[in-house]
Amino acid sequence: MVSRMIFDISFVSSSGSPIEICRLAAKAEKLGFNAVWMAHDLLSDSAWVICGAIAYSSSRIKVGPGIVNPYSCSLPEIAMAATSLDNLSNGRCVLGVGPGAKRLLLDGNIKQMQVISKLEQTVGYLREALRPSSEILKINVNRAIPIYVGCQSPKLLEHIGQWRVGALPLLTPPSYASKAFASMKKGAEAAGVELRQQDLIASILVSLAKDENEAARSFADFITSILLHLSPRQLDELGISPKEAYEIVRCYPQEGWEMLPSKIYRLGAVGVENCIKALNEIAHAGFTRAKIGSPLGPNKEIAMEVFVKNVRQQLDSET
């Protein structure tokens, strides 16, 4: 049973034009979502620009990039942008950082190296820069801006626990939630620190529509576009080997969504019943906050309405 689960939502460049994403964010605010995150994938739309537009045109919802990485952007620039966004939004910025997708970085001729030490340096710098008493930036930092590390690997999840920082783990599949939570808890216990559940956001891929076949088709299109970027450790949870993942991506354009093995759809939550099941699963693992993300569905606005009416209300009735 989900108890007092807080829901965030996320968008990517393929969710629509920057103007359309801003419109969807406004809808998310009206529907009561806690925060809206915008992906910052290399060579795609800039999350900072879109988040700034969302912040200026909204009044309540939290907003931020999910995620930026320290390879394609310097740490001072990340701190500058986060502080500017926080000041523009009157204290509503949330900052997601992480290693980024290795293959996407290579598209920009950028190598992803020494991931753990690089992220440890990133967290340390940003924690210092993004607090009111800091003298690093030449602009006012009015509050400690919350930092969330997005990742998939067990080793990084352990370090999140050690660093006492927020977490934004992508759970593909959602059934990986208990192992992800256990990894973060293990890291926190090893460092002798407390794991703060309110700072842990389970990120799951959701696809909803009035027609569940359309939800499945939308999910298939999206998951095959990112399948080779996902953690082999998490894919193994469903018995998907790197070789099988490659073959699925290779054959999908010819064979289509109906020919995908059923386990592919378990990498996310497709349809109302599966979405409720996934959210109950992550709640039982220990998460109290969830971020539902792209593809969301063939029509993002309808998908949000279905989530609120058929998923969130059902979960609320169970508490």
Can you walk me through this structure?
The protein is an alpha/beta fold. 48% of the residues lie in helices and 12% in strands. The strands form 2 sheets. A 6-stranded parallel beta sheet has the order 3-2-1-9-7-8. Strands 4-5-6 form a 3-stranded parallel beta sheet, covered by helices on one side. The relative contact order is 0.14. The mean pLDDT is 95.
Offer a concise description of the structure.
The protein is of the alpha/beta class and 319 residues long. Helix content is 48%, strand content 12%. The model has no long low-confidence stretch (mean pLDDT 95).
Q: With helices defined by DSSP (H or I, 4 residues minimum), what is the helix count?
A: 13
Average pLDDT for all residues: 95
Order of helices and strands: EHEHEHEHHEHEHEHHHHEHEH
Secondary structural class = alpha/beta
How many individual β-strands? Answer: 9
- Proportion in helices: 40-55%
Radius of gyration using CA atoms only: 19 Å
The main pleated sheet reads as: 6 strands, parallel
The rounded distance between the terminal residues' Cα atoms is: 7 Å
Query: How would the global form be characterised?
Result: globular
Strand content: 5-15%
Low-confidence stretches: none
Strand line-up in the sheet with most strands: 3-2-1-9-7-8
Topology:
Layout lengths: L5 E6 L6 H13 L4 E4 L8 H11 L4 E4 L9 H14 L6 E3 L4 H6 L7 H15 L17 E3 L4 H10 L2 E2 L9 H15 L9 E7 L4 H15 L5 H4 L6 H14 L6 H4 L3 E2 L1 H14 L3 E8 L3 H19 L1
Parallel strand pairs: 1-2, 1-9, 2-3, 4-5, 5-6, 7-8, 7-9
